Fold this protein.
Amino acid sequence: MRHYGFKLFLLMSLLAAVAVVQAQAAVDFTGTWKVNASKSDYGPMPPPDTMVEKIVHKEPSIKVNIAQTGGQGDMNYDMAYTTDGKECTNTFMGNDFKTTLKWEGDVLVGDTKGSFDGNDFTANDKWALSDGGKTLTVTRHIATGGGDFDIKLVFDKQ
């Protein structure tokens, strides 16, 4: 009986591991994503007039090109990450940001630390697909010396 219980435990552990791998393999953020301003919430930040993210996701690599106009100015920049929990450094406007991304089920969770114009910040992101992969929602909690705030960006696949 004890031998049977151990085999059952091993089988359940294996099935759980396979389910996690399958869930991660099914999530693919690749595509061109346009922000849906009416469904997004920028918190205290000025919203952009337009924002488009072009994502290339080939596990464990994610590359993102962000193009936006208005709001905080016109910008076009690239970011590169991995989803394996290893720290990735990206530079934006002369400032280095260090990010780790990891999977929690079908949700990609990111933690970023950096300094912008001498002001330290942290950002905690959650990326999730819905509506059959047609909607990407990024929820972000930002903590700065001046206070914390939340942002929700909703993107429609083009």
Summary: The helical segments are 2-26.
